[in-house]
Amino acid sequence: MSINALREKIPDYAKDIRLNLGTLASEPSLSDQQKWGTFYASALATGQNDVIAAVANEVTDKLTDEAQTAAKSAAAIMAMNNVYYRATHLLSGSDYETLPAKLRMNVIGNPGVDKADFELWSLAVSAINGCGMCMDSHEKVVRKAGLTTDQVQTALRIAAVVNAAAAVIGTL
User: CA-based, 20 to 30 A from 6: which of 18, 55, 67, 168?
Assistant: First the structure.
């Protein structure tokens, strides 16, 4: 299955999601690696098998093996970090925010792709997982690396639409 096949599975009541998937697949503001890595990391973050399979099939000729692995790593590490940092932020005791996490996060320092791309994918996954603290952290890194607000917004739009596609496909 591909993005187009996924789009065809989306029913008319979610036509906007179908249209947005098509628009974002041809979005020019991100490099192909940034765009398709964001699609892939976002799909993995949804946990919806049909969406993951469609996007994985789509990226096989668009991302290097290293970039595919890095997108998987972004989804995996953010699955852990988003829970931890969201919890420390939401707990009423401020002591938790000052404690070291004591969790291994080596992939963030050496993701195997351009650091800004990995951080962009981590930002998208953090948006899906609802961790404001992580979104702020990753947004600062990508902006410092030179990405524009338009590029950040595009990554967030991809995350939102992929997440919505997963919600719709999951109910079929």
Answer: 67
H helix runs in 13-131, sequence order: 15-25, 32-46, 49-59, 65-90, 95-98, 106-109, 115-129
Asked if 131 and 86 count as a contact pair (C-beta separation under 8 A), the reply is yes
d(CA 43, CA 35): 12
Predicted model pTM: 0.94
List, for residues 118-154, the tens digit of each pLDDT value: 999 999 999 999 999 999 999 999 999 999 999 999 9
Q: CB–CB of 1/53 below 8 Å?
A: yes
Return the CATH fold of 3-170.
AhpD-like (1.20.1290)
Q: Could you give the residue numbers annotated as active site?
A: 131, 134
